[in-house]
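Sat 14:20. Reprocessing the chain from the morning session after the first attempt stalled halfway. Input below, unchanged.
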Amino acid sequence: MSEQAGGDSGLGGLVDKAKDLASDERIDQVAGAIKGVAPDSVDEQVDALADKAKQANDR
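Finished this time. Tokens:
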């Protein structure tokens, strides 16, 4: 348990890894894939969610 208090193996390391994987480019790729299989009626909501995810990256 002491490993979770710091270093890359703890929660902070997981958060950093998630931020790296959730780049703006990757968010756009995922949104595009969702819009490719979902009905056109949800495109606006997918775009809004992608924008929120990108804003979270800026923090």
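Residues 1-6 have pLDDT under 50 and may be disordered.
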